[in-house]
Structure formats: C-alpha cells, structure tokens
Amino acid sequence: MKDPPESDKRPMLNPKFQNAPLPVAVDQEAVEALASAIEAESGTNIERNRDLAAFSSWQIGGKADLYLEPPSGEILGLALCQARTLDVPVTVLGAGTNILIADAGIRGLTLRLGKAFDFRQWQGLGEAEAVVWVGSASRFIRLAKETVAEGYGGLEFAAGIPGSTGGAVAMNAGAFGGEISDTLVEVEGVTEDGQLTVWPRDKIKFAYRRLELPTRTVITSSRFRLRRSSKVRLRDAVARVQARRRKGQPQGFANAGSVFKNPPGEFAGRLIERVGLKGRGVGRAEVSREHANFILNLGGATARDVHDLMSLVQDEVWSRCGVWLEPEVRLVGEWV
Ligand SMILES: Cc1cc2nc3c(=O)[nH]c(=O)nc-3n(C[C@H](O)[C@H](O)[C@H](O)COP(=O)(O)OP(=O)(O)OC[C@H]3O[C@@H](n4cnc5c(N)ncnc54)[C@H](O)[C@@H]3O)c2cc1C
After folding, report:
1. How far, in Å, is the centroid of ligand 1 from the Cα of 173?
2. Which of 50, 204, 225, 286 is buried most deeply by CB count within 10 Å?
3. Do residues 251 and 296 touch, judged by C-beta distance below 8 A?
4. Angle at 161 between CA 160 and CA 162, to 5 degrees
5. Model pTM?
6. Three-class secondary structure of residue 175 per DSSP
7. Which atom in ligand 1 lies closest to the alpha carbon of residue 91?
8. Element (H, E) at 7
9. Quick one: pLDDT at residue 9?
C-alpha cells in the first residue's frame, strides 16, 4: 500500500485514529471551576455528563463533561471568556448532521445554540431583493422553505440539507451547484474573548465545506441577500432538489450525509464504489449500498466502528486509485 500523499500534511495526526485530533490533557478541576463560574455569574444551569448521542444524526457519541445551551449572546460570551481564562476546551455543536462524536465523549465545555438563536427576520430592499437575518439555531431547511414562500431565490439548494443555519455557514454547505457563499452577506459571532463581532463577506475566507473565522468563534446569526423570483419557479427548483435527494440518498438508517469531500474533478462516492466497498461494514457501521459516500449506523454502531470504516475506505481508495479522501464530517471529542 502507498503512503498517504506528501500534500496531505496533518501534523496533529492521532496515531490510533487517523482522522481525529490528538487528545488534549484537560484539567478536571478547571472544568468544575468553569461550571461554577458560569452558574454563579449567569444564574444558568450547566449540565454535567450530558449524553450527546441524540445530538448527532448518526446517533453516536459519549458524554459531555459540561453542556450548555446559552439563553443569550451575553451568557454565550461569558462562557467563552471564562473557558479561555481557565484554559478549558470548547466544542460547538449545531444540529449534529456533519459530526462524529467520540465514544469517550467531549472533554470541557460543549455549547449548542437553542431557542434564543432560532429566528428569521426579513428586511425588504425594494422590488428585486431582500435580506434575511437568520439565527444560527434556525433549521436550514426551514429557511429554504420560507425563502421560497416569500418568493426569493438563492437558497433552493438548501432544501434537504438537514443542519442548523449556523452549522451550514460554518461548513459553507452546498449542493447541486449552490453554496452558502453565493448569498451570504455577513456573519455575526461571539469570539473567544466574549466579543460580539460582525464579519462582512469580504472579510471571510470561503473554501470547500469550510469558512474561516477566528478560532473558537461561535456564529450566532447570518444575513443572506436574496433575489425576487417567481414562486412557481422556486417551488419547481425545490421539488427537483428533493426528488434528486430521494432518488440518490439512502433512507431509513442514521447517517451524516457525505462522509468524504469530493476530490477535485471526481466524486468520492464513485471512487468508493469503484473499489467495491458498497455494503462493506465494520461492527454495526456499513457503507451504504445506495450511495457509497454515506456510512450508515445499522443500529448500535460506535464512533470507533464508523472511524475504522472511514480509515478502511481511505486506505483502499488510496491504494487502488491513488486518491486520498479527506473527511467532510468533523470528528469531535476525545479520541483515545
Ligand atoms: C442526510 C444528509 C444530507 C446532507 N446533505 C448535505 C449537502 O447536500 N450539502 C452539505 O453541504 N451538507 C450536507 N449534509 C451535512 C450537514 O447537514 C451540513 O454540513 C450542515 O450544514 C451542518 O450543520 P449542523 O448544524 O448539523 O452542524 P454540525 O454537524 O453540528 O457541526 C458541523 C461543524 O460546524 C461547527 N458549527 C456548528 N454550528 C456552529 C456555530 N453556530 N458556530 C460555529 N461553528 C459551528 C461545528 O463545530 C462543526 O465543526 C447532509 C447531512 C445529512 C445527514
């Protein structure tokens, strides 16, 4: 078998889990001090040892040391600031449709934006355009439906992307030729020093399934500029997107959509199919027989099962096709 290519420089490679970050030592006294500080200053309850599997579309994952759904931007800022002071790691979850949470769970503080960040506000810009301001907890599919109902185009591709809007922005989500970056005007977020900051689009670096903001920034809302369009045409576009998804994607088992990014000029799924891995399993995880870039939880799969199946796919595609598949899903938590 060939070694992964030189260009694939991953200095933080975890020797046991080739796609996961290295575990970091976390001081449990600092973790408890963080919980007490947030509770004392905000009056908000922090949950300890919260089960996370229900927050991942794969329905996999261990427990979070500390779990918080901040009820406001101020408390989010306070939590981030205290975590930085106490040197406690922070993990942000959206709707969990593009993450693999480690079986050992997530050390430090896990944040998930809830009701306070679930809103959509419309701002007319005359006949031809409108801007919609969207809270990060707002479901992306719901946003797509609402834009169509209002008669504005630009987000039809989102019909069928099951994440939160914050997660979609963080991932620069896209499908069928459309992408977040096409309509995004600005992003609002809270930085690790607790400051609410706005980044206009020209200050944001977009990449394939990635958007660059300062580390540990939590995106709280985003603005999209949309064009007036015929509702009939928009509804047709959405119906086409949904039909393509129904036809091409597996139904019935927990999954996280496409596991690997498409390499330039290729489709990850086509390569995986070409090397004969459809239906291949590790433990209770299986490469979908319908769409080879999906890994299914057949029921009871562990994060390790999914990870090891991902590694098997990467190694096989590399040795047979000379292409190293980069994960699109993000591995979070403690991989030990
Ligand atoms: C059936 C299925 C189909 C899918 N189809 C597509 C598709 O066509 N195109 C596509 O692009 N994706 C697709 N996905 C993947 C996924 O839905 C998108 O990437 C989605 O945008 C992720 O949003 P999320 O809220 O679930 O984020 P999560 O999975 O919770 O998180 C993803 C990443 O974003 C970060 N993040 C989440 N919220 C925030 C925030 N508020 N601030 C800062 N960082 C944040 C997390 O830390 C993590 O690194 C699909 C998934 C499934 C299950």
Report:
1. 7
2. 286
3. no
4. 100
5. 0.94
6. strand
7. 47
8. none
9. 42
